[in-house]
Fold each of these.
Amino acid sequence: MRQFFKPLTVEEAVKMKKDNPGALYLGGGCWINNGGRDGRGESLISLEALKLKACEEKDGTYALGAGLTFQELADWKDCCPPLKEALMFMTSRNLRNQATLGGDLAVGPEKSCLLPLLLALNAELETGEGQSMALEEYFKQYPKEGQGPLILNVRFSPEKGRAGVRQIRKSAGGLVVLSAAVWLDGSPEAPKAARVFVSGTAEGIQRLKEAEEALSSGGSFSEEDLEKAVARTVNMEGDLKGSKEYKSYVCGVAVCDCVRSCREALK
Ligand SMILES: Cc1cc2nc3c(=O)[nH]c(=O)nc-3n(C[C@H](O)[C@H](O)[C@H](O)COP(=O)(O)OP(=O)(O)OC[C@H]3O[C@@H](n4cnc5c(N)ncnc54)[C@H](O)[C@@H]3O)c2cc1C
């Protein structure tokens, strides 16, 4: 590392990044210090002094500071159950004490365990440039790690809907095969809206529109039909975590598990 910046304000941080385009924002450093820099990040811009730790739930709308660690969020008394569940997918407490919300989102679709849930919850980001943007849009515009603007906080409102999450690993504490998240709104039997996201696919993260339509069409559907629809449309690739067929099948099972959790919570 050649340079280490310690801005005291958001404006300073944004200016330092503009003046040093190759620099990386430093959250908890969990990824950056693990060699995840790919040769980049000769300059680091510490976010520590910005204290992006505000944490609020008001009338069902959550506003979470990007500097909150996984453990701080999981310990927060108002943390919503699916978020807490997704935070605990990071099984090591040491890592949870280090990794931040902003770092997890910025690190990108392949590595983040919170992304599917926050996408299913239609989350928005507030950036250091004062912009508000949908999380889905952030990834369309900045698909590669560390290229996006400074994330200040994440906001979402589950409205009346409920979310469910599921992660499949190769073995307990082993490699993550996929993470799935579903958000449903309406009655448990006939939801009127649905959002379904899965990470670990060939595209990194995928929105499963066909499953969303099946869930929100008002007609009855069996779990077997849903499992098959997911397995047919999810774009998996075989690798050391499993064959394409296995991953597609287990994705269908994970999505059905999420749907069951949502329906329980909607009752
Ligand atoms: C051993 C190991 C295990 C891991 N296990 C998991 C896991 O189980 N689940 C999981 O989801 N992830 C996992 N990760 C991936 C990753 O480290 C984490 O997602 C973590 O949350 C990164 O957060 P951080 O604050 O430490 O990020 P950093 O390492 O500080 O930064 C990561 C990237 O995010 C950028 N960044 C940081 N904060 C911001 C911000 N506020 N705005 C814009 N850009 C920012 C940095 O510039 C950098 O490009 C693991 C990583 C390692 C090394």
Note: Residues 3-156 form a domain with the Uridine Diphospho-n-acetylenolpyruvylglucosamine Reductase; domain 3 fold (CATH 3.30.465.10).
Amino acid sequence: MQIQLQHVSARHPAAKDDSVPALRDATIQIQQGEQVAVIGPSGAGKTTFLHAVACALKPASGQLALSGQDPWKLPRSALQALRGQLFLAPQVPPLPPRQRVVTTVLAGRLPQMGFLHSLRSLFYPLDIPAAHAALKAFDLDKKIFERVDRLSGGERQRVGLARLLASDAKLWLIDEPLSALDPTRATQALEVLTRACRERGATLVCTLHQVERALEAFPRIIGLRHGEVAFDLPSGEVSRERLTALYAQHEHELFGPAPVNEFPEQNVQLGQPAVMHCR
Ligand SMILES: Nc1ncnc2c1ncn2[C@@H]1O[C@H](COP(=O)(O)OP(=O)(O)OP(=O)(O)O)[C@@H](O)[C@H]1O
Ligand SMILES: [Mg+2]
């Protein structure tokens, strides 16, 4: 799915109407099948940007187009159909506590199902092999019949990603997918997501705090600062100077503390960019 923003500004629904928008005057084009990471310090507007693209948040001004259509000018049913083609994976997936993992994962397919079919699948998981395959990609297949409230934070985050993998969305919008994952799982998760997305020809936009990983895994990087696009570049052109300017006054987010022997093989020296930075 192609994304076009023309001078889009947007603010959180809870923000006052006269407050400075969290996303300001953003003009961005993302072609179908592209993989883009969005980075920037906390409060830069990354989640707001994702929510605006996901049609979860109506722009305060400017034009948004998905596959050439302004979603907010579509009739309600067409807007719902469009939302069914995209998948917004929040940082903390809203997983119903007592639900089995298999049901949660297959819920990723609900937007593509008819009402009766989806209702039935909530009570009787209909495509267990599909849930199994999605979970296996994240080494979670053994947890398929576990209750989600008995999973660790990292497992829950990976179940949220497996749910995305089980969907057939054409636009993947993923907010901080690695925040609860250790370095090995983080690498695995990014590999799974970028490979699957590429194989399906879907478009991937992913916010990340781990700048090093963003540069490694994504060919294009958008840097947001104070709600504005500070740069939009191929990852090979994102210099240290640009990153330093992007994270000015937030250096701790760029140069996280060196991990202390928790993952000895990943240890880095103080003052060097940390390989992994979880908030
Ligand atoms: N619940 C809220 N109520 C009012 N304003 C909000 C709310 N959430 C966010 N905002 C405003 O939107 C701005 C951008 O928030 P957003 O969540 O998009 O940033 P972010 O880059 O995703 O940050 P983080 O890295 O911490 O997730 C905030 O600085 C704040 O001004
Ligand atoms: Mg955020």
Note: The chain has ten helices and nine strands.
